[in-house]
Q: What sequence folds into this?
C-alpha cells in the first residue's frame, strides 16, 4: 500500500490517491511529483471510491498512449470496470467517461469520419469577425465592474467569455449560453449532479439543432447539420456537444491560469510588462504549468501490456496526466520559466485525438487576457496566492475565484 502524497490523503479502503484530491491540492505538481517518486511515470490512482485507474505521467509514456490506437482505445466500451459493474450506472464519472456516438469515443476510420466535421467547422470560423465579437464581449463584461474597482476575474469574466463566444458561433443567444454554462460546470465536476447537468446540456443543444433544421442559419449548428459525414440526429448532437463542452471549460481554465500567473508571479509579470515577453508567451507558460485539462479521460487497454514498468491488464483505464507529463524531469526546464516560444507541452494532447480547436481557443484566450490587462491597469490579487481554491473536478483545475482590485476606470459607469 502506497503512502499518500503530502496534502493529498489516500482513500482509506484502497490506499490510492483520489484524482480529484490531486487536482484540488494547493500545489498539484507536488502531488504528481510524489506519485512519480512512489510509482514511476505511471501511477495507480482512484477515480471515485472503488474505481481505480492508471495515471500516465511520463512524457514518453504519454506519447505511446496517445499514438497507439491498436493497443490503447478511446472507446469506453472497452473499460473492464464499466462492463463488470464496478462503475455504477449512475456514476458521476460517466458524463465525462461513458461512451458516446461521437469523435471522442471512436478509433481508426470511424474516428476520422467523425473528426472531419470538427476540423471543417473550425476552418470555416472567420477569425477576424470572431476576435471582434470576443473583444466586444470582453469590453461589455469589464464595463460591469470597471467603476467598482474590484472584481472576481473567474466568476465575472473567465467563466463567461468562452461559453458566450462559443454559443454565438453555434447560433445561441446570451441566455442560452448561460444555461449551457451552468449545466457544463456540473458535468465537469463528475459529482452527484453530473448526470443531471449532462442531460440539461444535451436538451438545450438538441432543441437548437431541431430549430436549425427548420430554419437554417449561418452558424456552426447548421454546418454540422449539413455535413455529409454525420448520419443522424445523435451524431449531429454529439458533434456539437464535443465542440462546446471541450472548448468552454478548457478556455475558461486557460484564461484563469494566464491571469493567475501574471497576478502571482512577479518575475514573469515584470518580464511581460517590460516588453521582454508578449501575451502569447504568457499563454504558453500557463499551458506548461497548468494545462486546461489537468487530466484527460481516457484510454483503455485492448490487451495485456506493459507501460512505465507496470503490467497493464486488458480493459484497464489509463488517464492522460497532462499536467504531470508537462512536469516530467526529462523535459522540464531547470529554470521555472519556460523558454519563450516553447510549445513542446502536451496541453492539447497528441496523436489522432489532438485538440482540433487550438487556433480559436488561443484567439479567445489571447483576446480575453489582452483586453482585461489593457482596460484595467494596476490589477492586484486581493488574497494570498496560496489561498486560491479550485472547483472540484478530477479533470480540470479552475480557480473558484480570482478576486482583484484596481484603480476604477475613469468614465466607467458604476453599476449598483
A:
Amino acid at each position: 500500500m502506497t503512502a499518500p502524497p503530502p496534502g493529498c490523503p489516500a482513500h482509506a479502503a484502497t490506499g490510492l490517491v483520489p484524482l480529484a484530491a490531486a487536482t484540488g491540492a494547493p500545489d498539484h505538481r507536488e502531488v504528481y511529483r510524489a506519485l512519480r517518486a512512489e510509482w514511476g511515470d505511471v501511477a495507480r490512482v482512484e477515480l471515485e471510491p472503488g474505481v481505480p485507474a492508471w495515471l500516465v505521467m511520463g512524457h514518453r509514456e504519454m506519447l505511446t498512449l496517445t499514438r497507439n490506437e491498436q493497443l490503447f482505445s478511446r472507446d469506453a466500451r472497452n473499460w473492464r470496470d464499466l462492463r463488470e459493474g464496478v462503475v455504477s450506472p449512475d456514476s458521476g464519472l460517466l458524463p465525462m467517461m461513458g461512451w458516446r456516438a461521437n469523435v471522442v469515443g471512436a478509433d481508426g476510420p470511424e474516428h476520422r469520419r467523425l473528426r472531419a466535421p470538427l476540423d471543417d467547422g473550425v476552418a470555416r470560423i472567420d477569425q477576424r469577425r470572431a476576435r471582434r465579437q470576443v473583444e466586444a464581449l470582453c469590453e461589455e463584461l469589464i464595463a460591469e465592474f470597471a467603476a467598482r474597482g474590484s472584481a472576481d476575474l473567474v466568476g465575472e469574466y473567465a467563466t463567461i467569455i468562452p461559453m458566450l463566444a462559443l454559443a454565438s458561433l453555434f447560433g445561441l443567444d446570451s441566455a442560452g449560453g448561460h444555461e449551457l454554462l451552468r449545466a457544463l460546470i456540473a458535468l465537469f465536476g463528475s459529482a452527484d449532479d453530473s448526470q443531471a447537468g449532462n442531460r440539461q446540456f444535451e436538451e438545450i443543444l438538441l432543441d437548437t439543432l431541431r430549430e436549425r433544421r427548420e430554419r437554417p442559419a449561418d452558424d456552426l449548428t447548421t454546418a454540422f447539420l449539413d455535413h455529409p459525414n454525420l448520419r443522424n440526429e445523435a451524431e449531429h448532437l454529439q458533434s456539437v456537444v464535443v465542440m462546446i463542452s471541450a472548448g468552454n471549460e478548457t478556455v475558461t481554465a486557460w484564461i484563469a491560469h494566464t491571469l493567475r500567473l501574471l497576478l502571482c508571479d512577479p518575475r514573469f509579470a515584470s518580464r511581460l510588462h517590460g516588453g521582454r515577453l508578449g501575451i502569447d508567451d504568457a499563454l504558453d507558460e500557463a499551458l506548461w504549468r497548468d494545462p486546461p485539462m489537468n487530466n484527460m479521460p481516457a484510454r483503455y487497454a485492448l490487451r495485456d501490456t506493459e507501460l512505465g514498468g507496470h503490467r497493464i491488464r486488458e480493459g484497464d483505464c489509463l488517464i492522460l496526466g497532462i499536467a504531470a507529463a508537462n512536469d516530467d524531469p526529462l523535459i522540464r526546464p531547470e529554470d521555472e520559466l519556460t523558454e519563450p516560444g516553447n510549445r513542446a507541452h502536451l496541453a492539447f494532447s497528441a496523436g489522432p485525438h489532438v485538440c482540433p480547436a487550438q487556433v480559436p481557443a488561443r484567439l479567445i484566450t489571447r483576446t480575453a487576457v489582452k483586453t482585461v490587462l489593457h482596460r484595467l491597469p494596476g490589477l492586484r490579487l486581493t488574497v494570498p496566492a496560496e489561498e486560491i481554491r479550485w472547483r472540484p473536478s478530477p479533470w480540470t483545475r479552475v480557480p473558484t475565484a480570482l478576486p482583484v482590485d484596481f484603480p476604477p476606470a475613469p468614465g466607467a459607469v458604476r453599476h449598483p
Remarks:
- The domain at 17-405 is CATH 1.10.630.10 (Cytochrome p450).
